[in-house]
Write a structure and sequence with these properties.
The chain is an alpha+beta fold and about 280 residues long. Helices cover about 20% and strands about 15% of the residues.
């Protein structure tokens, strides 16, 4: 039989070499394969904010003292939700995880029973609720610095759209509660978009961020990827102002605050995802 194979010209050394190589080829193929695409649980467009410096805070004598001094801050690249988390998205999270539903600000009964509010920003969310949602979506809350850069870009403008004053076509602010008519559907005021196309960064719903609040933090904060102060009391930062806020509270620099269990008709959130480095929540 061996002589027959030799007559047919089979090179046994080549055969053995191929048999030895085959498993190695399979292993290389597995290692070199592209990782599976991330399954997005949170179906919302995200806007990429490029790495680089921006002007954070306000010059002394402008804004409020907790915004001073203005300084150049460098951030790594990240992506941010284009719009605030809506009732529809939040209730999908509740249905999936069993997390508690927020208080219904529009009347009696569960929030899920109210019709026509699906695209309004969810409110009555605590900082813990916001953190839980973002973690479920494989994201996190933005730092104050990330939020502010996404809101104002790199030129130090006062509002997301420019230095021009706010109007009802740019922001939902300085209003009284009017049930389902109070909050606007997310993304509906395109004249108020930030330089990156992020929507509703002024007014509508205030937004929880990751940082603990410290009125003097800017005076000694790092100038690269600041993550907020170490734990300081029970107060977290809130940004952006709400439907009820005066114009001074809806600037891109204005800093709000609230205990992490705070729930109001005007407080919601959005999430981010780091694209270069992962910032651990504190």
């Amino acid at each position: 039989m061996t002589q027959s194979l030799r007559r047919r010209g089979i090179n046994w050394i080549s055969v053995l070499a191929m048999m030895t190589l085959a498993p190695a080829v399979a292993i290389v193929s597995l290692v070199g394969a592209a990782p599976p695409a991330l399954k997005e649980l949170d179906q919302v467009p995200m806007v990429t904010i490029p790495a680089g410096p921006f002007l954070m805070g306000s010059p002394e004598g402008k804004g409020r003292a907790d915004e001073w001094p203005q300084r150049s801050v460098h951030l790594d690249q990240f992506a941010i939700d284009q719009v605030e988390v809506t009732n529809e998205r939040y209730l999908a999270f509740v249905a999936t995880t069993g997390h508690r539903s927020p208080t219904n600000p529009y009347g009696t009964g569960p929030l899920s029973s109210v019709k026509g509010i699906e695209q309004l920003p969810v409110v009555q969310a605590t900082w813990y609720d916001a953190k839980a949602y973002c973690s479920w979506a494989k994201k996190r809350l933005p730092t104050e610095a990330e939020w502010e850069k996404a809101a104002r870009g790199t030129d130090g403008r006062l509002f997301p759209w420019s230095n021009e004053p706010a109007t009802s076509k740019r922001a939902n602010f300085d209003r009284e509660w009017d049930e389902e008519k109070t909050l606007h559907p997310v993304g509906s005021l395109s004249d108020g978009d930030s330089p990156y196309g992020v929507k509703d960064m002024s007014g509508n719903a205030r937004e929880w961020v990751q940082d603990w609040y410290d009125p003097e933090y800017y005076q000694h904060a790092p100038d690269r990827n600041p993550q907020g102060p170490d734990k300081k009391g029970v107060v977290r930062s809130i940004r952006g102002g709400s439907w009820h806020s005066p114009i001074s509270d809806i600037t891109a620099t204005a800093r709000g605050r609230g205990g992490f269990a705070l729930q109001t008709h005007g407080t919601g959130f959005r999430c981010v995802r780091g694209l270069e480095t992962q910032i651990q929540q504190k």
